[in-house]
Automatic annotation (TrEMBL):
<dbReference type="InterPro" id="IPR011042">
    <property type="entry name" value="6-blade_b-propeller_TolB-like"/>
</dbReference>
<dbReference type="InterPro" id="IPR047153">
    <property type="entry name" value="TRIM45/56/19-like"/>
</dbReference>
<dbReference type="GO" id="GO:0061630">
    <property type="term" value="F:ubiquitin protein ligase activity"/>
</dbReference>
<keyword id="KW-0862">Zinc</keyword>
<dbReference type="InterPro" id="IPR000315">
    <property type="entry name" value="Znf_B-box"/>
</dbReference>
<dbReference type="Pfam" id="PF00643">
    <property type="entry name" value="zf-B_box"/>
</dbReference>
<feature type="domain" description="B box-type">
    <location>
        <begin position="55"/>
        <end position="96"/>
    </location>
</feature>
<dbReference type="GO" id="GO:0008270">
    <property type="term" value="F:zinc ion binding"/>
</dbReference>
<feature type="domain" description="B box-type">
    <location>
        <begin position="5"/>
        <end position="50"/>
    </location>
</feature>
<dbReference type="GO" id="GO:0005654">
    <property type="term" value="C:nucleoplasm"/>
</dbReference>
<keyword id="KW-0479">Metal-binding</keyword>
<keyword id="KW-0175">Coiled coil</keyword>
<keyword id="KW-0863">Zinc-finger</keyword>
<protein>
    <recommendedName>
        <fullName>B box-type domain-containing protein</fullName>
    </recommendedName>
</protein>
<feature type="coiled-coil region">
    <location>
        <begin position="154"/>
        <end position="189"/>
    </location>
</feature>
Length: 440
């Protein structure tokens, strides 16, 4: 039976507690609840009914009369205000409310991402279901064609028809199993996303600091949608049948094609980035040699498989096709010291001017100055996967990589300290968002 000493008291008076402020981590009676809100109106409050759960985790084990309002960074446990004088002396101490607020923000952010993941996984599953339906319809049609051929060839080809039917059935079973496995895998991830959403909602509703401290984010694990095997349906090869060559020309079966569909990552904003399945060649293969009419080629960037932009010692930026024909050209006089060019998905071309220490953009309006580098000499240029312009620059013995947003001109710098002095020439970004530069 509870005694009077067991009653949890209000943090501001001696009355029994009835409510709890999640933001301030204070227990409040009915009378002090309104006073607490009015006293600090500039601070957000979240008042909830007080339960035994709040009292259980608030009590300090070593000091039962004290509440756990701090957090020991060394021991990774909540403590009261008296604990630092004994068991946690000289330990790193933080306010428990601040730790919980940080965790709450992480959970809220993850919840937002998980909801985006849920939508994307749903799209993948729907696409797999549609693909399985189309595949089945196609194979059913192929099977009907096979039966019709069997009727035409009668007993002469019955034996071969039966063999190919079995081959087709096994292939269909294998392919549908692949598609089903893809769907099962996506549904497993989809259920995991739903579970994480429910868990995060529960954590935010219950606001239990112990569970929040134990929380481990699943967002990074679920961000990458894995690659999947792809299946193209088998196709029957139907030759023109001649009586004298019936046996030779019995229909054969072209196997289904198995390939890999690239996975993709989901950014915090919900943007999709494909993960390439391409493998680098062990030996380079020459596709085409293009005559550029330039003695010294300083910059090159590919617009597509058919078109390329170049910059040479003639102070002109040219667009060439695979035959070497000039499709477009404009002057970009930089006194022979322009080093690199880059093109984005919108067709905007960027090139550096060393003497003017600026970056120029070429668009439908013509050439215009995009940004002044303020004493830094620009060299290598490239547009990254986000559409931002990456520029490598030097000034004396200092070197840095700067990323510019084309729309806002906002920039982010990466400084290279402790690296030998180098001259940046070319910069690019690979498909896992790492950048490379060439130097000498």
């Amino acid at each position: 039976m509870n005694t009077a000493q067991d009653v949890v008291r209000c943090s501001q008076c001696t009355e029994a507690v009835t409510h709890h402020c999640k933001i301030c981590q204070k227990n409040l009676c009915l009378q002090c609840k309104d006073e607490h809100i009015d006293k600090s109106k500039s601070t957000p409050h979240e008042i909830i009914p007080f339960t035994s759960k709040h009292h259980e985790w608030q009590k300090c084990v070593d000091h039962p009369t004290e509440l756990k309002t701090f957090y020991c960074q060394d021991c990774k446990v909540p403590i009261c205000q008296l604990c630092p004088t004994r068991n946690h002396k000289r330990h790193g101490i933080e306010v428990l409310k601040d730790i919980c607020e940080t965790s709450r923000m992480t959970i809220t952010g993850d919840l937002k991402e998980l909801k985006i993941f849920k939508v994307e996984y749903s799209k993948v599953i729907k696409g797999l279901e549609e693909k399985a339906t189309i595949y089945t319809e196609h194979t059913n049609h192929e099977n009907s064609s096979l039966m019709k051929l069997g009727e035409e060839l009668h007993k002469i080809v019955d034996r071969e028809i039966e063999r190919i039917q079995k081959q087709l059935a096994n292939m269909v079973k294998e392919d549908l199993q692949i598609l089903q496995d893809n769907k099962d895998e996506m549904q497993g991830s989809y259920k995991r996303v739903k579970y994480c959403i429910e868990r995060n909602n529960r954590l935010l509703e219950e606001d239990n600091p112990i569970e929040m401290l134990e929380y481990k984010s699943s967002a990074d694990e679920l961000r990458l949608v894995p690659s999947m095997k792809d299946v193209s349906p088998p196709k029957l090869i139907m030759p023109n049948i001649k009586e004298e060559k019936i046996i030779e020309q019995v229909v054969s079966l072209k196997p289904s094609v198995h390939s890999i569909l690239p996975g993709f990552t989901i950014s915090k904003a919900g943007d999709i980035s494909m993960v390439s399945t391409r493998v680098l060649m062990t030996e380079p293969t020459l596709i085409k040699a293009i005559f550029t009419y330039s003695k010294k080629l300083k910059g090159i960037c590919c617009e597509s498989d058919e078109k390329v932009w170049i910059y040479g010692d003639d102070e002109e930026i040219k667009q060439l096709d695979k035959s070497g024909s000039i499709l477009n050209v404009f002057n970009a006089v930089s006194k022979g010291i322009q080093k690199d060019i880059a093109i984005n998905k919108d067709g905007h071309i960027a090139f550096a001017h060393e003497e003017d220490e600026c970056i120029n953009l070429v668009n439908k309006k013509g050439i215009e100055k995009f940004v002044d580098m303020a004493g830094w000499i620009p060299y290598g240029l490239c547009f990254n996967s986000e559409g931002d312009l990456m520029v490598t620059t030097i000034r004396g013995g200092l070197r840095k990589l700067t990323t510019f947003n084309i729309e806002t001109s906002l920039s982010v710098d990466i400084h290279f300290s402790g690296i030998p002095v180098m001259s940046f020439r070319h910069t690019t970004e690979d498909e896992v968002i790492l950048f490379y530069y060439q130097y000498y």
